[in-house]
């Protein structure tokens, strides 16, 4: 008989395992976001125009990065299943095929970021911001191929439950990024004064450094030598690549749709003036930092559930999923409370402009409420990935973000159709409404899929 005390003990045991896996992922993600944070903060202290350019540039780059990162998460899924099933000898070939996908995505991302001016013209961004934003994205583009190949190696390590290397490397990159920004933004010690564009070059250098460090670690680590990733050159295998793409594209698109809605809203807000863009960017940037907590738990859940399914234990996979969703909700309570209490201090850290600071404080209230629903949906999606259930969650996110959030937010924020135009506040209400719809749907989806997997195993026995 299962008692509440035994369930609680199981939960804390699983929580320990999940946190051991997820905490290094969290630190690594925070370091990556920290690079964006320092870019935004240091550019904001250089000029409001450069802050706005970084905001708009980030709104274009982040969906591209998350589409790439999400697509490559299929590598984590497959590696974790092989690892859980005790088939480590098959992992090397899988990673080599994933690297071909990364090379292709890196080239596509590079070309795209080199030619973004048409998007900004289409969105009627001011000419000054167009010039600064395109220069920033061109500078950033040089590091895209490196970050793509780095992500494949990160996905491989995560699938094998080795998450500390990416944490250490990301922290080193953050430490390098800060002085590089100092040199290239302000033109110190004889370096050119590039303003916000310097952030792009600094980030590109850090991306290249991250890839080289991870490549060195995987190449020379005794643990990873048994996977034989770099012992031979393997030509593209269409069958293996198609399997990875079929799994990865829905994950990447789900990331893209959710990140894209934030970025689309930022681009729409770009027409409302520099002050509103800057205030919105502060709220968005800080909420992106807090989002890393449930996102890291979600990635840990993907690994843990994948390994449990690979080991033929769907009951354990289900318990892992429920435990992770509950943990993400607890984390949301903490982050939301912190945002509400310290909103003034958060805004002041980014800017000295009183108008920007006041708007940021108002929008941080919506960011705090957003934490709860976002935590449930991202944790549910992470658990579902372990079951290779990626297509239906992608559709749910698509509907929530682009059928509900954007139209409803646009009507509230920029028109008088429903009520008097609410500006950026109305757009944030649209985002909240979308997550209010998506979160329970995804939680129910996990319940259905996990039960189905358990029943399938019982029938097979």
From TrEMBL:
Membrane topology qualifier: Multi-pass membrane protein
Record Pfam families: MatE (PF01554)
Stretches that traverse the bilayer: 18-37, 52-77, 98-116, 136-156, 168-189, 201-220, 241-270, 282-305, 317-342, 354-373, 394-413, 425-444
One of the GO biological process terms: monoatomic ion transport
GO molecular function: antiporter activity; xenobiotic transmembrane transporter activity
Gene Ontology terms: cellular component: plasma membrane
Keyword annotations from UniProtKB, A to Z: Antiport, Cell membrane, Ion transport, Membrane, Transmembrane, Transmembrane helix, Transport
Keyword Repeat applies: no
Location(s), subcellular: Cell inner membrane
Cited NCBIfam families: matE (TIGR00797)
UniProt protein name: Multidrug-efflux transporter
Organism: Candidatus Endonucleibacter bathymodioli
